[in-house]
Specification:
737 residues; alpha/beta; Na+/H+ antiporter like fold; five-stranded antiparallel beta sheet; five-stranded mixed beta sheet; 28 helices; 9% strand
Length: 737
């Protein structure tokens, strides 16, 4: 593990995975070969397979993220473990051919049902990739990013294809040419860049808006676009040449022109019509309907592209790219998150199932995989770094850009999966692709982080400041006020027709979009920061003025408060169902009960109960706890009626809900609502920043101490007797009690 420690969650994940694997290991009798199964059995098997895939993929995702590797690799590894080449092949009771039997005798190891689900998952993934493409960034930095992206793609394609050509005599027993299908597919695989990995490093180093960061992000977008075009051309050429078994040069120009023409034509039409498509989708009104209709359009276009001789994923990417320009792109991504979370693990897990462990461990594959990984890394570092130096970056900046473009993951695995499904790559080459992905995903981010440790600039000249972007901040007095204004601003902009997207809860990032207007908000601590085009800054300030006006009105209304005491008095109203006394037992023990308090004043009683909690080890800072309890007490006395007082507070001095109970038979003045002395005291503390059943606990206590409950408590002589009253079902409420 990255930190040398296996966390409880990781251990639990390993345990669950072991339990899932137990039936296949303990009950295994022998590897089986799948025969004919009736439809109901196949559907039953598919349901079990899908459940196991989702469980194993999620555990693999979690485990790999623990060691700071992409979760997609964990999902792929999970498929390798449970697949037909590993645990899935073993037969046991009720499953004569194992949980993941071979589909037939033709060499296919994945059933048609799982293959179909994997194909749909690939469409969903490329649709999402298209949605996330930032066309504005692409156009704004198209010159430098374009040069870097094109050069990096060309170098990667050539070295990736040449690598297999050089190793083919050793791997295949005979040499192949540079235009052989495996060479073309392996070259195409290396062109992709996993910008998500690089973006995480840039975000951690606060370099997303640096010259290197912007260049990397824009070049990665261009890489995705060019990679999809290249895949279109390669698939078209190989499909047209499949009948003869060789590349027909007379067809290359025609097929390439057709592939690029269809792709570019559909993309241009989509981008021109993007706003009208967005208006059409908005007609459905409800956000979930918008997202479902968008996905339906992506599936339809993917099918049409496949019918035209192009890959389905290309059609899905075009539809995503079209909708990326609309103000509902974030809405679609947000609402399709469950669909994404369901299907994408299926794709990577099923891809992992196609890998033969014996092939992955063979020396030729390992050697070629390592060489392929080095070639892919060098291709991006040199191919992207050299043009970056010509574009005004120094050696350090060029190195940052080169290593920032080197990680590969999701898109590379998708292209490899498409090649495998089409019969253009074998399991041994898929294994080499995985080795390449792992090496690049580990080495490149580490090198990038190291290059950013130095604060030195990566450009030869100072970067001019963009004067078209306005940024500002609003300083507020408290976190509560900040939360109020964020919610109010969101409401104001939504009423103006904006779509409000909560980008990151932990970082407090929001994005407000309407047509071409984009406003970024960052909510942290007691400040709200905004960033937008200068022409839209007045809009942000106008909305803030409206929010302040609402705050002023709210303050005015607060001068006419609710009658808190009348509400508090209803705490002890009888409940039809009665309290759930089991909810008291985890928080109350005999040691936390004092049957005869010595304190004669409100302060003394609270301090005496606090001392009980301190002695039990539940309270870390007695003085701070005392301060928090008294601050709550000064707001509104916690003395109820009928002799019951429930002093309480939320405090940082406890990690969970804790309580102490004390009895003063003579009674003391606790400023109760009925002005009578209080005799039964329950002090309750709960953490400020962690969930705790504070309100439920208070409600249960109030219901236990009905008239009969109070009499039973006051009749007790020992802490054990009082504990029994609190933890057994109370007697029914008597009338007039």
């Amino acid at each position: 593990m990255a930190r040398g420690i296996v966390s409880n969650k990781t251990a639990a994940s390993l345990a669950v995975m072991a339990v899932c694997a137990t039936p296949a290991v303990c009950l295994a009798v022998a590897p089986g070969e799948a025969g004919e199964m009736d439809l109901s059995h196949r559907m039953m098997l598919l349901v079990i397979q899908l459940g196991l895939i989702l469980l194993a993929a999620r555990l693999g995702h979690i485990l790999f993220e623990k060691i700071r590797l992409p979760g997609a690799l964990g999902e792929l590894a999970a498929g390798l473990v449970i697949g037909p080449y590993a645990l899935g092949q073993f037969a046991f009771y009720g499953f004569d051919y194992g949980l993941f039997p071979a589909a037939g005798h033709g060499g296919a190891v994945i059933s048609p049902e799982l293959s179909a689900l994997s194909a749909v998952a690939a469409v969903v993934l490329l649709f999402t990739v298209g949605l996330e493409t930032d066309l504005k960034l692409l156009l704004r930095y198209s010159l430098v990013g374009g040069v870097v992206g094109v050069c990096g793609m060309a170098a990667s394609f050539l070295l990736g294809a040449a690598g297999f050509m050089w190793f083919s005599p050793w791997l295949l027993g005979h040499p192949v040419g540079l235009l052989a299908p495996p060479c073309l597919m392996l070259g195409t695989v290396t062109t992709a860049t996993s910008v998500a990995v690089t973006a995480r490093i840039l975000s951690e180093k606060r370099k997303l808006d640096s010259p290197e960061g912007v260049t990397i992000l824009s070049a990665a977008v261009i890489d995705d676009v060019l990679g999809i075009i290249l895949l279109t051309v390669v698939m078209g050429v190989l499909t047209a040449s499949k009948a003869t078994g060789r590349i027909e040069w007379s067809l290359v120009g025609v097929v390439a022109a057709k592939a690029v023409g269809v792709w570019l034509g559909a993309t241009v039409i989509g981008l021109i019509a993007s706003r009208k498509i967005g208006v059409l989708l908005k007609w459905f009104g409800e956000r979930m309907s918008i997202a479902i209709m968008a996905l339906a359009m992506a599936l339809l276009l993917a099918g049409l592209f496949e019918e035209a001789g192009l890959a389905m994923i290309i059609g899905a990417y075009v539809m995503g790219l079209t909708l990326s320009r609309t103000d509902i792109s974030h809405v679609i991504r947000e609402k399709l998150t469950p669909v994404y979370a369901l299907f994408i693990p299926v794709f990577f897990c099923v891809t992992g199932m196609r890998i033969d462990l014996r092939v992955l461990a063979s020396p030729p594959v390992l050697v070629f995989g390592a060489a392929y990984a080095v070639l892919a890394l060098v291709a991006k570092v040199v191919g992207c770094g050299l043009p970056a130096m010509l574009a005004g970056f120094n050696l350090r900046g060029a190195g940052r850009i080169g290593f920032g473009m080197a990680p590969r993951c999701e898109v590379a695995l998708i292209i490899a999966g498409v090649g495998l499904s089409a019969g253009l790559l074998g399991p041994e080459l898929l294994a080499a692709v995985i080795i390449m992905v792992v090496v690049n995903i580990v080495a490149a981010p580490a090198a990038l982080a190291g290059l950013f440790r130095s604060p030195a600039a990566g450009t030869r000249r100072p970067v001019p400041v963009d004067t078209d972007i306005a940024a500002g901040r609003f300083e507020l007095a408290t976190i509560a006020m900040r939360e109020f204004f964020v919610a109010k601003l969101a409401g104001i902009f939504e009423s103006e027709g904006f779509y409000v997207h909560h980008i990151s809860r932990s970082a407090g990032l929001y994005q407000l979009r309407k047509d071409t207007t984009v406003i970024d908000l960052k909510s942290l601590g007691t400040t709200i920061e905004y960033s937008c085009a200068r022409r839209d800054e007045a809009l942000v300030n106008a909305a803030m003025v409206e929010a302040v006006a609402v705050m002023e009105q709210s303050i005015e209304q607060l001068r006419k408060p609710l009658d808190a005491r009348s509400i508090q008095s209803r705490l002890q109203a009888p409940s039809a169902r009665g309290p759930v006394v089991e909810g008291i037992r985890p928080y109350l023990t005999v040691e936390l009960i004092e049957p005869r308090l010595s304190g004669r004043t409100k302060t003394e009683v609270i301090d005496e109960l606090l001392d009980i909690l301190v002695r039990s080890g539940a309270v870390k800072d007695r003085d701070l706890a005392h301060q928090d309890v008294w601050q709550r007490e000064q707001t509104l006395s916690t003395g109820l009626q009928h002799g019951v007082a429930v002093p309480h507070a939320k405090t940082d001095t406890v990690d969970r809900l804790v309580c102490a109970v004390g009895i003063s038979p003579e009674g003391i003045d606790f400023d109760a609502m009925d002005h009578e002395p209080s005799t039964i005291f329950i002090l309750t503390l709960s953490p400020k920043d962690k969930p705790a059943p504070h309100v439920q606990f208070m409600s249960t206590i109030s219901q236990i101490l009905n008239s009969s409950g109070r009499e039973r408590v006051l009749a007790c002589e020992t802490a054990e007797q009082i504990y029994a009253v609190f933890t057994t079902a109370p007697l029914p409420e008597r009338s007039g009690g």
